[in-house]
Design goal:
With about 270 residues, the chain is mainly α. It contains twelve helices and two strands.
Length: about 270
């Protein structure tokens, strides 16, 4: 794995070229271009704000637009990375059959291109933070740590899904449904506090809130973004460290899974 990492470093210019190509293709013939990076999450924020502060108000959530946006931006980065990475290998079948390069470059470039969109949208988040007079605390300095943990988790999942889509072409259709369910199971537009701390199930008392943190790494990641930015407080380091370990484990599993089947990609396509 270390050898592959060194090889990928040698091909870093190729990764960047794929990222640039993805960005150009995405906004080709688009009038607004990169402005959609900002307009899309802002539009979603406006819709959710109207729904959950006017039609179905959460009385306990103050400054709801910022509360929502500091979770919506990382979720969009994750979901867009997952969807685009699934096509990263099959969409480059011609190159794979003709030219040698580390196949890992493809899902990596898909994740990194969406990471650029995420980073470009962060100034809007901080501008909204200032406009809505949300206190900026030293805990906001943990933002790069949160981004790194999320990137590691996303790359691991991207490698698994890009491989599965080569083997089973119905993977994207399944993942669209999975991502929708995953979105509602992650505290993006609602506070974690709405989940019950105890629920009786089959004679057992379950801490639903804790269970969501443990079983859903994205819930822990999203909640940590919100805690350091919206609440200005330290994240739950036990859950965050567990999520970081999970992300690293998924990266290793994803790499091994990808490496095992990458040799057969030309035949499968």
């Amino acid at each position: 794995m270390l050898t592959k990492f060194i090889e990928l470093l040698q091909y870093r210019e190729l990764v960047w070229n794929f990222v640039v190509r993805d960005l150009k293709v995405r906004y080709k013939h688009s009038i607004l271009g990169f402005a959609w990076t900002l307009l899309n999450p802002l539009g979603m924020m406006a819709i959710f704000t109207v729904v959950f502060t006017v039609m179905l108000p959460y009385a306990s959530v103050e400054k709801y637009p910022f509360f929502l946006l500091c979770a919506l931006l990382p979720w969009n980065f994750f979901s867009n990375s997952v969807l685009s990475s699934m096509y990263s290998v099959v969409g480059n079948a011609f190159l794979i059959k003709k030219v040698y390069f580390p196949r890992e470059v493809l899902p990596l470039s898909a994740v990194f291109s969406n990471l650029i969109h995420f980073l470009l949208a962060l100034p809007v988040l901080f501008l909204l933070m200032i406009v809505m007079k949300v206190a900026i605390t030293p805990w906001a300095l943990l933002l790069p740590v949160m981004i790194v943990v999320q990137v590691i988790f996303t790359i691991g999942l991207a490698m698994v899904l890009s491989t599965l889509n080569v083997l089973y072409r119905d993977t994207p259709m399944i993942m669209e449904v999975v991502l929708l369910v995953w979105f509602f199971l992650t505290p993006v537009f609602y506070p974690m506090e709405v989940l019950p701390q105890s629920r009786l199930l089959w004679g057992m008392v379950l801490d639903v809130r804790r269970l969501v943190y443990i079983l859903n790494p994205m819930a822990s990641i999203i909640a940590s973004y919100r805690v350091i930015l919206y609440h200005g407080a330290p994240p739950a380091f036990d859950f965050l460290s567990r999520t970081a370990v999970t992300a690293l484990a998924l990266l290793v599993v994803g790499y091994l899974f990808f490496s095992r089947y990458s040799r057969t990609f030309p035949e499968e396509m």
